[in-house]
Amino acid sequence: MANARHNRESIISPQGRRDTIVVGSFRLASAICIAGTLVSIGHMIDGGGRTALVWAIIFTVAAGAFAFGELSWGGRAARAEERRLRILLLKRQHALATASNSDPDGTPPARLVTMMTDNTERLTEYRQVYFGATLAAIMIPFLILFYIGIAIDPVVGFVVMILIPLIPLGIRGFMLLFRKASSESRKQRDQLSNRYLDAIRNLNTIRLLGAGKRIEEELGRQGEANRGAIMRLLAGNQIVIIVMDGLFSLILICLTAGLAIMRSDYLTPGESVAVMLLTVLLLEPLQQVAGFFYIGMGGRASQKAIESYLASQTVGPSAAVTPDAGSWINDRLDVQLENVHYDHGRGEVLRGVDLEVPRGGRVAIVGRSGAGKSTLMGIIQGTLPPQNGHAAVAGRIIDPQALTLTRSLSASVAQSTWMFTGTIADNLRIARQEATETEMWDALERAQVADEIARMPHRLDTHLGEGAAVISGGQAQRISLARALLSGRRLLLLDEPTSHVDIESEARIIDAVANLPRDWTILMITHRPSLLRIADAAYELKEGKLGRLELAA
Amino acid sequence: MITAQPDPPLHDIVRWLLRITRPVHPLLLVSLLCRIINLLLDLVLFGLAAGGVVHMMTGGGNPGMLAAALVAVALSKAAFYYFEQFTGHYVAFKALELLRTFVYAKIWPKAPAFVTHSRSGDVLTSLTRDVDRIEVVYAHTFAPVISAYVVGSLAILIAGILAGWKLIWVVGLCLALSLFVVPYIGARRSFNQTQATLEARRNLAHHITDTVFGVDEVIGYGRESERIAEMDQLGGEVCRSARTPRNLVAFRRGANVTLSLVATISVVWIGMGMAESPVVVAAVAAASLRLFKGPRGIEDSVGYLDHSLAAARRLWEMSNAPERVSDGPDELALEAAPTVSFQSVHYGYPGADGSALPDAIIDVSLQVPAGGHAILVGRSGSGKSTLIQLLQRHDDPRSGQVAIDGVPVDRFTLDSLRRNVVAVSQKNQLLATTLAENLRLGAPDATDDELWEALAIVGLADEVQAMPEGLDTHTGQNGSALSGGQAQRVCLARALLMHPKILVLDEFTANLNIELEDEIRKALAKWDSELTIIEITHRLRATAHADVISVLDQGRIVLSGGPADVTPEAIESLFHVRQRSIQEHSGTQATEGRSSAVRCTAARSIATGTNTFTS
Question: Which of A62, A333, B171, B319 satisfies CB 3.0 to 4.6 Å to B106 for a cystine?
């Protein structure tokens, strides 16, 4: 519980919390001014004359202004908070990507995207717009009745106030009852939606197999059955609506009317009219009920998702690598690992790895999946902090506190490449912003993809579009290689770069790597005999240690 | 292709929508009626309470009668509220279903061209969201808006007649302002700005997708802070464009609050001036205050309406997009394995904006003998799959002819053509349902025995038998409950169950090991001799058994012939020569610097086909 509270505090910014209060205050102020108008109306009836009228009009204008303020401020605050949250989430992703995550499966990127778009919007609509207003709406009846009790008649004011807790209780009961039905019917609806989505996703298959008509009818039939079930659920559960609505009207209006009549000896006509008009404000909490289903539930679910993502723990470096013991560094080695250990928190993956890659060398590492190859690569890349042992890249110690530096020393080509929206040139400039066209073409030549890009009508300015549909996976890999070459980093880390490409692309990638001048140092993970063949040395990662592999001539 | 048509006027779209949802209209009216009664009873309740109290205080009336009346009004109001809600839900669900079914019925005949050529991800996700948005109109917009106008006019009319126009003319004016002026102030600007916000949100989502999925690159090249800054800038645009609509919404709320109070004040002020009965004044004042609940309903709905109309327009465009191909006059019925021929075929895909893209197929001619086995080789993007798509008539060639047994494919009905030409691709194409239902997708009448037989041919019968639920095993979304190899074999079994005469195998072995591939090939050969097979492959070991082998590159056939002529070595040297010529052309790379080991490996991997996908 303490933990959950702590998280909540950390995800809504202080500014965001202040905004919630401001929004609530606007709502309260608006309601108080409305009450002011209504009370002034009572004074008018009791002979208050122009003074009362003037007051009524002043309160009226103020009530409108505060109502404007509530929505205007809340919306602005929500958008601003949304921006802050997105940054928080993205920074979290970067932190998680550069540390061992306690959650072995991690959050799928698609979910993170949803979190940063849809969920942040919902959460802030809930926290900055809805929440403050709702708190205020719940307080309003008490304030009004307190006022009636003090200023008009204690019996009317305080007797109704005793019954007022029935409202939140009633609403709560309403929500609980309704939630059950609504979660059940939502489940049914979700099922149907999923089938529908699935049918759309597989539109081509369905069409080509001649099943279009049949699936269409099936969807219709299921929809019908499903709807029948939902309606039966609702028919029963929405009886609650009668109870709630009737109860509110009865308790608040009939009771207030009854009390006012009972106390008619003590009330002026103006006061009794004012009391009756003020009952309208007692219904304020009801205004927020509908919003609960649209904004409240979605917002709370979003908050939970975002909280748990932001709370995901990383396993920190257990024993810091001693940065001062730099005497063992050998300037001629681009990768130097001595007795490196690593544990993701599920048992040691690396148990004393030793590796030396000389400058200009080409070293291959093999090993079955799960052997720790990616962990090893992560340490050298600077995305995982080494936990033990000595580690240096390009003659510089890997300092767990300064991994950004380590990351700037090497360039990687992974199994598959993400192509960013924009042109080919934009994608290359990710590696080096100030790269000239000549440099880009040079890198593309070396990566053996220049001729294909030169044939495209817009050449470097070819827009890659969504999902890089314009280029093949093989081309994307070679552009990724070009990007790495362009980065100016001389240590290339290749992680099975040809595992998802077509034959010609593979041949060209291998060709490209083989033809790189010895200015580049290459460390690669691969199973391909073809890539192994261009290595000077190969090692197998087995049971957490590296063993030298004899290369067939 | 979606933008190739003129935009229809708004009322046409609305009429179109109303036609689809006609079955729910009667109930929608019932729901509306219930809401109107509910709102009127609400006015009565407050008027009665306030008027009754004053009446009692001034010495008249019967408390028992008043209490009974209040209870009766309150309860019947609750009952009408219930009926309004219930019928409203019914309308919403039914409308949703009608729209979904309608749109699905409209778009499936347009597949596959629809999916291939439009930015499908976009279209398909927006499809479901758009349908949901329109549902909101039916569930939460129609009744509140109409009832606000109806109840408002009725209430003013009744009060005017009963209590005199002099007393309520200000109330009438205020209500008219809030019904006819306030909702429309800045409506157009608000609509435009909302579109701008949606656009800004799309850009933002796009940027976030790139950053999140490309996290390796972002971090690897130290671009974190730039991506964050860019994202925040896009977020700022969302903030800016959302400002105007939000302030207009806030203005409407403020205006309505003010107007409702002004109306109430006016009743009391005028009533006192007129020396009107205090009972009437109190009742009308209380009812006036409640009367503005209606405009508040409009306030909430107007925001939705913008989105909904845009959604309706998109649905209209999607549903009315032309079909790229249509049925020919004849049913294709084949007794025996047919020949397949391509005659000087040219084809270019249409671009997303309707413009033509450069030709993907250039002057391709190819003959596959009856019962033959043809193999298409080429790198990705060379046009192999496009040829198959033309054979299945995803689209028609720009020129030239694709024919089965000499008859052009556009002579046949699409269904009969595709029943006979069945393709199995490397892509996972399983529905999220049971194995049996997936298998029966193309052959709904297949018996369990037939399913098992097909599974046996693809070497999957034992594995399925071992699954606890057998044929009822759920395949998960996109076949996620199965391994890649299993999913692929289910797809093949599904194709076999349709008993096609032309079977297209597009990289169908991509996820299979060689032993399994051999077994399946053997079983296939035994299964049905009346079958013409066209295969797309990277593994060249199958070429020895083929009748025709064609090598494609950039949309052209660069080499074609029998296995004697088109040997793996010949293909390899072709690639090799082409590659060198490219390099000489580009002129910078020193070819002699290339290690011969690489060349050999490349050659070997092509020749043996052992390299890809097996590790």
Answer: B319
